[in-house]
Amino acid sequence: MIGIDNYLAVGSVKSAWVSLYILSIVWGLLYMIRPLFDTSSDISDMETGDKRSGGFLSRIGKAYDVVKDNMFMHLFALSLNAFGAASTKALAILSWIFFALTIVYAVAVMFIEQKMVRAVFGLIFFVLTLIMTSLAFKHGW
């Protein structure tokens, strides 16, 4: 096992954490714009005088939940690898795949309203998280 200083100096470790950082920025942006398109609240819209009709913009809350849930799963996997000073390049590659699929899933949730889509993406993210955390035990702990 390599020391923590050497582990943190590796570029692929930084790359994996950058993917989480960018995902947190997307989460923050969705957090800010979510109230603008939320149709489930009882707050009246003074400008239009009535409730907005549902559309894909009304599903931004679902995209927000997707990004939030996946960000915390990603954080868990990266933290476990960091504490164990484990995998580097494989983790970075998987982190960027996780990031890209999260963005695809968040966009898909806004346009497609099907349980099967959510189930398939849920399985994909579960397997990716399982692989990323398994790398921590294989190479670090």
UniProtKB/TrEMBL annotation:
Assigned keywords, A-Z: Membrane, Transmembrane, Transmembrane helix
In this entry, which stretches build a coiled coil?
Answer: none
- Give Gene Ontology CC terms: membrane
Q: Is DNA repair given among the entry's keywords?
A: no
* The keyword Membrane appears for this protein: yes
Q: What is its main location?
A: membrane
The residue ranges crossing the membrane are 15-33, 93-112, 119-137
- Could you name the domain of life of the organism this protein comes from? Eukaryota
The entry's localization annotation reads:
Membrane
The protein's matches in InterPro entries, at most eight in alphabetical order, are given as: MAPEG-like_dom_sf, Membr-assoc_MAPEG
Stated name of the protein: Uncharacterized protein
